[in-house]
Amino acid sequence: MKGTINNGSSQPAPTTNAVIKPGDDWKKNLKLPPKDMRMKTSDVTATKGNEFEDYCLKRELLMGIFEMGWEKPSPIQEESIPIALSGRDILARAKNGTGKSGAYLIPLLERIDLKKDCIQAVVIVPTRELALQVSQICIQVSKHMGGVKVMATTGGTNLRDDIMRLDETVHVIIATPGRILDLIKKGVAKVNQVQMIVLDEADKLLSQDFVVMMEEILGFLPKQRQILLYSATFPLSVQKFMNAHLQKPYEINLMEELTLKGVTQYYAYVTERQKVHCLNTLFSRLQINQSIIFCNSSQRVELLAKKISQLGYSCFYIHAKMRQTAVALCALSSCTHLFTRGIDIQAVNVVINFDFPKLGETYLHRIGRSGRFGHLGLAINLITYDDRFNLKAIEEQLGTEIKPIPGIIDKSLYVAEYHSESGEEVKP
């Protein structure tokens, strides 16, 4: 007997206590996580009041949704789910951290036919970290559905392992562009029955680094397929792709403001030599759950990681190749337990731009790593003399204000314990 797919790619068979008999109050048997009492911003609370049950989803899928702690659909989920279920193409503009993964994974899983042993849906993302994170969410949400097989595949991992895994049944593939294209060309990933393809962070996927691969991938898919395209920004490349490949897409725009409502943005004016000292001061004065520090090159992040370790903090670093330059980032935890689920988790409440980015789009993606799912966060930018024009340009481009850093930062701006669900400050 062949082995099952592992590496975050399949879920255990449903346990006997998950079997629901007609007439049962099925919600009583759910293993719900603790209720999230943190204050949320209107990015995720300004809903129409829909419930997940309103979408006529399979009960087993609803069980997974509620066990994720998702109580009600966020605005992007309200807009996306019914349209995606109807089979229509979607072009959605939504911020990072507002429930985007659920917006496409829920309709994707609802439409999987377990009687068919073939790849039925493909999710393409720009980075390995995001692929692993999305696959974990997909596995958790589908855990009661009786055998949805999910596979994450990215560059930098053993191709032979992927080939062996695809010898088994796979229903959903979550992949980076180069790897899925390689598997398709080798005839290993058979995508002739794919009914849905999702492009998450499409602005990156359709940048000059990836766009040729994306065009090639689409050439292998059936002509009758549904495309769901999610992007925080809409450069010309996204519009050209939409005109060429999407059929009368339903357009969703939830971004009157580009920056996340819950993220307070500051800058500290420093010389290059003062940056590490400034960072150390921030660590000692701020109440950080977990923070991410961005640099503009992989060499600088490796040097910075050494300095941070010498200061006595636990940290690790990863490089994410984006566009022509390597946008390198370093994740730091103020506690000794390092997180392993990638950079896109709710515990991050402070983002620091050790090097200020040159593009507004890059800035937006970076600061979107704090304030996840409508919670509060802080973005601090270390600005040198050479960055001053860039700072003003990005403020104007994004229609936002980056203020000088005050001597004392109010904890209610970024620390969850200082807020209740009602938005009133809580004195710990």
Mean pLDDT score, rounded?
79
Q: State Rg.
A: 22 Å
What portion of residues is helical? 25-40%
By CATH's scheme, which homologous superfamily of the largest domain applies? P-loop containing nucleotide triphosphate hydrolases
Q: State the major sheet.
A: 7 strands, parallel
Shape: globular
Write the CATH architecture name of the largest domain. 3-Layer(aba) Sandwich
Adjacency order of strands in the biggest sheet: 3-4-2-5-6-1-7
Strand percent estimate: 15-25%
Calculate the terminal CA-CA distance, rounded to whole Å.
56 Å
Poorly predicted segments: 1-23, 321-345, 420-428
Structural class: alpha/beta
What's the domain count? Answer: 2
CATH class call of the largest domain: Alpha Beta
SSE run: HHHEHEHEHEHEHHEHEEHEHEEEHEHE
Main location: cytoplasm
Domain Helicase C-terminal: 262-413
Protein name: RNA helicase
GO molecular function, one term: ATP binding
